[in-house]
Structures are given as C-alpha cells and as structure tokens.
Design a protein that fits this description.
- The protein starts with a strand and ends with a helix.
- The strands form 2 sheets. A 6-stranded mixed beta sheet has the order 1-10-9-3-7-6, with no helix packed on it.
- The protein has one domain: Sandwich (Lipoxygenase-1).
- It is built from 2 helices and 12 strands.
- The longest helix is centred in the last third of the chain and has 9 residues.
- It is 7% helix and 42% strand.
- The chain has 192 residues and is mainly β.
C-alpha cells in the first residue's frame, strides 16, 4: 500500500518494510504547453551526503555525466530529455545495504538544464512527482506529488532518504531553488 506524503512529512522505510534492501526512486514530470522556442530538458541528480550535509568527494554527486557512485550502490538511469509519456521519466536504483556508511543522507533533485539561457522555470512544469518502489516486487511504497508552487525555481530538492537509528527513512522535501544545478552543487560542496 502506497503512503502518500505532503511537503515536510517523513516516514519510516526499512522499519515498516523489514528485509527491504533494493529500491528505486522514480521521478516524473510533464512540461506545460508553451511557445518559448526551446525544448525542456529536466534532469534528475543525486547527492550522497555525509553527517555534515555535504558530499565527501565530487564522485558523491550522481548525474547524467556520473551515473553511479563509487561502489555502484546508487545508479541513475539514462537521461530522459522530454519527460513525455506517463510514469517515471528518470529512475535511481539503490541497494540500501551497500550504501557506504559515511553516506547519511541521499538527496534527490530535479533541475532544468540551461534554464536561465532558455528562460525556463518550474512554473512551466506540471505533474512532478517522486515515488519510492520496492525493486524486488514492484510495489510502490511512497509517493510525493509536488504540486505546482515552484514558479520561479530552476531546481527542486524533491526528497531525501536518510539514516536514523540504523534504519532508512524518507522525507518529502519539496524545496525550490533559483540557482539551478550549480547552486545545489555549491550548497552540497561539489566543486563546479
């Protein structure tokens, strides 16, 4: 049974699903119809954060040019450049049992590629969501529909998986940022 979250809510993941080790996070979106002259290209990115809320090295930043972390416990699917069609546009596979111990939090974001030069923002994006699925049986465990309150943002941290007392939890974050992927990288300690 899917747990539907609202912004700011947190839920146990492994405590309520004993034995869960392999999950995937699906991220999806649609672009509104508009005539801006440029195609939309939204990208999923993942930041593997230590106890200080920063990446330990640039390899802890997972995106289309670095699709997996050093031990391959977190892997991003290919780059969907259109967001067309129903379902997940990009996915992140995670082997929870193999995530390095120094990774205390895994932050998932969606950014608009070249948003500033293309004059694009999340006000032109609809039906954004993040969902967490048990990879073994395909059961959707958690879903967070973002809504449309990110009108000037060019990047969104949609959710976070984090460790708490030896278990994994999920938080629906839904925080918008105006400085795109470069701003998120700076906030999380990635050298750009």
């Amino acid at each position: 049974m899917t747990v539907n979250l609202s912004k700011g809510q947190k839920v146990d993941l492994t405590k309520t699903n004993p034995g869960l080790t392999k999950v995937f996070v699906g991220l999806g979106w649609d672009t509104n119809k508009y005539d801006g002259g440029s195609e939309f290209d939204l990208d999923a990115s993942v930041f593997c954060l230590n106890a200080d809320g920063r990446v330990s090295s640039d390899s802890d930043f997972i995106f289309f040019n670095n699709p997996k972390n050093t031990n391959s416990s977190i892997e991003l699917s290919g780059d969907n450049r259109t967001g067309e069609g129903a379902g997940d546009d990009e996915t992140v596979k995670i082997d929870l049992a193999s995530v390095p111990q120094e990774v205390q939090k895994i932050a998932f974001s969606i950014t608009i590629h070249e948003a500033q030069s293309r004059n694009q923002n999340f006000g032109q994006v609809a039906n954004s969501f993040v969902r967490l699925v048990n990879e073994t049986n395909g059961e959707e465990l958690i879903r967070y529909d973002l809504g449309e309150d990110f009108s000037v943002g060019t990047a969104i941290v949609v959710g976070e998986l984090y460790r708490h007392n030896g278990e994994w939890k999920f938080a629906a974050v839904g925080s918008g940022f105006q400085n795109g992927l470069a701003g998120l990288c700076q906030d999380y300690g990635v050298n750009v």
